[in-house]
């Protein structure tokens, strides 16, 4: 029987996300054994779908075939305690102290079931995520509630949800190299340094947290990772790179190891170059031994500096000669070595810019260029008595240099400050004769275009890197746009290679879900995937340069913790965002003129309250502890001022009053919840969602709901226990290693999803420790739907589809009738992940009401 969407009570209610509030439930008088029937779309007739079967299959990037992705640990728990949600076996007859029920599935489906009181409260979850074959099924309820007590209700409703919901990982937004079947560019920080050999571009990535700090690409295939040599040491941070066409010279500038040194690898075979006057170095030995880890063994290095001494800030090598130069800005010093023997040939003072990187470039004639405060200088005879033979002044914060390999008198320089562009300097004329990028970059407004460069880096610094390839094209590290731009000598952008460094802050505009944010970058993302299955996206705004000084702190960068934690376009058509500035939550307007306008601060969290969080309709929600109650509060949006600023009610009202009883899913104050605190969302059916993300202090339920104005739980779900693929919440009771558990709960229509990033969790299936990165999906009646995500414990050096790290900024949205979950990524895939949730429209629910000692038929 097919009934209209939104019909409730004793009739069908399609479990489809909708922005409409359903009609009130009609009153019904049910006598003993009288059956109230309901059947949703899909419970009778129709073809089958690819369901969430017992066998786990790995997704592929952009795969057209829907895939159910495994939970972190698919091992079921041991014998369940009384009141657990494992269903009893089919009964041959009706026992007086049971309620027997039967139902028929026309095809195999994934099912969850529960017992509900007449007022809609969930009394008992009978089972979760059980795959049942087509045919008739009979089960019994032993009259016990989830707490093990006998239910007092005379008449109850039995509901069985059945579906073939699938979770398809489509890829990531913001990474142009994350194509099907290949490893993407990925890094913890933006590119640190560049060097080129003909068609080969070498990319130094700095410290890259358990991944290689060296990457590369071929100019003929710029969207494919192709490193010329392999470097596997995860302790180092390769911050400088230079090449003479025979060997790649690499400078360690800080990682877990804080020592500084230079080493080299032959381009022909990747083997380390032996410097006869170098020294062997072991960065890490096996505990209690002198046996060095292979990846941390360096048989020959030069320019070694122990921890605490100045680190290199520039590296350049002669292609035709034998000289290698290393700069140390903190000491205003340049050291020159024999690039083959490793012998130190000279050491001299130079007016280097006090802060900088990529401060050196070697000209085609062997002369050395270096960056000063607002100038670049040219030196000759650098291995003997160096002499200055050229100088360009009047530059605006020179950040990086690249010599023209075909013309010794020309030099490319990236300028920060107000310039945010690259210029070519000609020693013969003393003038700049070419410019790359629009002068001023993104200054004044946020619209992103290929030629608007941005060199803003973390903690108020600036950074770029340059290299000239074999075709004379210039590669530019466009740092705060998170991309490498390849310019022709005439100034046209001919290639763009984009990826996001580690990002903990992501957001999606709930009213305009095509707007997806990573830190301060805004992408336009189509609902329909591209032809290869990946998300179709483009960078449209970079709001970082538009921030006024009052909103800038050490995190104001397009990586790590900076950025917008929420974005909402309200009824007045204007867009507002939340962001954290020096520990204070600010509300700002993202203006149509490309400017960021500060509006006001929001109430912060304290020992007894959570921080205010803006909802999609503009209301502010938070919670306050009050004795044995936790009051979820709301301040309604009442309108907007003449300048567009939101106006809220002067005081808050109580949305729901949650019992703070043992094992209940109220929020424990001070528990880590990601970047913005608990969201306290409302479902379309008028339920306030509460979530306890903590891993200690609660061995009961972690997800719950209460009706608006209510003081009781409508349902409690997601019990503590090892991750089992069925929505259990792993705590320290079963995993002593785990540090953080969940983050936030989200809603879309009747769908409720929470994130469980699980930092340092133990995969109980293989014993490995990592990050869980799971998402638990429930309905707004508390019944389990599915679990998806890919834990880091199942990956290796090659990221598997869906794998991510510290995914604690998730957003659940509807876009053009499709359901998506977006989330951040530490650096597994270098972008904002997108999952599509399929099959929601075909979910069905069978239900009937009855009393103990009877058998009822669900329809």
CATH topology of the domain at 191-498: Methylamine Dehydrogenase, Chain H
Task: Assign the structural class, choosing from mainly alpha, mainly beta, alpha/beta, alpha+beta, or little secondary structure.
Answer: mainly beta
Could you state the CATH homologous superfamily of the domain at 191-498?
YVTN repeat-like/Quinoprotein amine dehydrogenase
**What's the rounded overall pLDDT mean?**
89
What is the correct CATH architecture of the domain at 191-498?
7 Propeller
The outline comes out as elongated
Under the CATH scheme, which class of the domain at 191-498?
A: Mainly Beta
Q: Quote the beta fraction.
A: 35-45%
Name the helicity range: under 10%
Largest sheet entry? 6 strands, antiparallel
Oligomer: single chain
Q: Give me the Rg, rounded.
A: 30 Å
Are there runs of 5+ residues with pLDDT below 50, and where?
1-92
Structure commentary:
The protein is mainly beta and 859 residues long. 0% of the residues lie in helices and 39% in strands. The strands form 16 sheets. A six-stranded antiparallel beta sheet has the order 9-12-13-14-16-15, with no helix packed on it. Strands 3-2-5-59 form a four-stranded antiparallel beta sheet, with no helix packed on it. It is elongated. The model is unreliable at 1-92 (pLDDT under 50). This is FlgD Ig-like domain-containing protein.
């Amino acid at each position: 029987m097919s009934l209209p969407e939104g019909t409730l009570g004793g009739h069908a209610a399609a479990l489809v996300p909708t922005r409409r509030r359903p009609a009130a439930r009609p009153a019904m008088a049910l006598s003993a054994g009288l059956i109230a029937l309901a059947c949703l779309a899909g419970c009778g007739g129709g073809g089958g779908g690819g369901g969430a079967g017992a066998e786990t299959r790995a997704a592929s990037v952009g795969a057209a075939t829907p895939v159910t992705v495994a939970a972190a640990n698919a091992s079921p728990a041991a014998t369940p305690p009384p009141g657990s949600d494992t269903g009893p076996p089919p009964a041959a007859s009706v026992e007086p102290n049971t309620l027997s029920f039967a139902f028929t599935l026309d095809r195999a489906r994934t099912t969850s079931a529960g017992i509900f009181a007449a007022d809609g409260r969930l009394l008992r979850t009978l089972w979760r995520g059980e795959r049942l074959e087509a045919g008739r099924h009979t089960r019994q309820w032993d009259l016990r509630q989830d707490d093990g007590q006998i239910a007092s209700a005379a008449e109850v409703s039995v509901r069985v949800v059945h579906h073939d919901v699938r979770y398809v990982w489509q890829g990531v937004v913001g990474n142009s190299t994350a194509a099907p079947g290949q490893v993407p560019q990925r890094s913890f920080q933006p590119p640190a340094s560049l060097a080129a050999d003909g068609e080969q571009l070498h990319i130094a990535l700095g410290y890259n947290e358990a991944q290689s700090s060296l990457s590369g690409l071929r100019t003929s295939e710029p969207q494919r990772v192709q490193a010329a040599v392999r470097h596997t040491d995860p302790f180092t941070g390769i911050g400088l790179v230079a090449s003479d066409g025979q060997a790649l010279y690499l400078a360690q500038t800080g990682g877990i190891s804080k020592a500084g040194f230079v080493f080299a690898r032959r381009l022909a075979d990747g083997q380390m170059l032996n410097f006869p006057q170098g020294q062997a170095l072991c960065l890490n030995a096996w505990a209690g031994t002198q046996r060095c880890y292979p990846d941390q063994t360096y048989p020959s290095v030069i320019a070694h500096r122990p921890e605490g001494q100045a680190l290199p800030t520039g590296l350049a090598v002669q292609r035709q000669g034998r000289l290698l130069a290393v700069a140390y800005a903190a000491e205003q010093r340049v050291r020159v070595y024999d690039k083959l023997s490793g012998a130190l040939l000279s050491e001299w003072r130079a007016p280097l810019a006090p802060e900088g990187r990529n401060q050196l470039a070697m000209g085609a004639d062997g002369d050395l260029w270096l960056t000063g405060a607002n100038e670049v200088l040219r030196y000759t005879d650098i291995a003997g008595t160096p002499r200055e033979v050229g100088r360009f002044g009047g530059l605006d914060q020179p950040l990086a240099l690249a010599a023209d390999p075909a013309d010794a008198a020309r030099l490319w320089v990236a300028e920060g400050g107000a310039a945010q562009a690259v210029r070519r300097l000609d020693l013969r004329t003393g003038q700049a004769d070419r410019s790359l990028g629009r002068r001023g970059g993104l200054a004044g407004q946020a619209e992103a275009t290929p030629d608007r460069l941005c060199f803003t880096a973390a903690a108020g610094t600036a950074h770029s890197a340059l290299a000239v390839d074999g075709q004379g094209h210039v590669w530019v590290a466009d740092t705060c746009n998170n991309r490498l731009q390849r310019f022709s000598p005439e100034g046209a952008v001919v290639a763009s290679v984009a990826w996001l460094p580690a990002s903990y802050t992501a957001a999606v505009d709930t009213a305009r879900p095509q707007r997806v944010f990573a830190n301060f970058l805004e992408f336009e993302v189509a609902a329909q995937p591209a032809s290869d299955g990946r998300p179709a996206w483009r960078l449209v705004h970079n709001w970082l340069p538009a921030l006024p000084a009052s909103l800038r702190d050490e995190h104001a960068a397009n990586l790590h913790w900076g950025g917008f934690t929420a974005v909402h376009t309200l009824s007045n058509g204007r867009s507002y965002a939340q962001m954290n500035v020096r520990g204070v939550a600010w509300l700002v307007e993202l203006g149509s003129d490309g400017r960021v306008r500060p509006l006001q601060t929001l109430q912060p969290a304290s020992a007894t309250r959570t921080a205010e969080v803006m909802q999609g309709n503009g209301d502010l929600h938070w919670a306050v502890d009050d004795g044995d109650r936790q009051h979820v509060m709301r301040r309604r949006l009442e309108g907007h001022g003449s300048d567009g600023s939101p106006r809220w009610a002067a005081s808050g009202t109580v949305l729901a009053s949650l019992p703070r009883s043992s094992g209940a899913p109220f929020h424990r104050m001070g528990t880590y919840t990601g970047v913005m605190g608990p969201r306290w969302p409302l479902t379309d059916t008028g339920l306030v969602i509460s979530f306890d993300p903590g891993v200690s202090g609660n061995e009961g339920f972690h997800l719950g709901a209460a009706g608006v104005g209510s003081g009781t739980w409508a349902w409690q779900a997601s019990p503590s226990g090892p991750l089992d693929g069925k929505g259990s919440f792993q705590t320290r009771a079963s995993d002593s290693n785990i540090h953080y558990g969940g983050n936030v709960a989200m809603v879309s229509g009747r769908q409720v999803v929470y994130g469980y990033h699980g930092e340092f969790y133990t995969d109980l299936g293989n014993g490995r420790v990592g990050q869980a990165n799971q998402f638990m999906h429930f309905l707004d009646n508390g019944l389990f739907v599915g679990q998806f995500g890919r834990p880091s414990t199942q990956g290796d050096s090659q990221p598997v589809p869906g794998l991510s790290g510290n995914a604690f900024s998730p957003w659940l949205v509807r876009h053009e009738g499709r359901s998506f979950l977006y989330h951040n990524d530490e650096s597994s895939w270098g972008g904002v992940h997108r999952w599509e949730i399929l099959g929601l429209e075909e979910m069905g629910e069978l239900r009937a009401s009855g009393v103990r000692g009877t058998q009822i038929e669900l329809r």
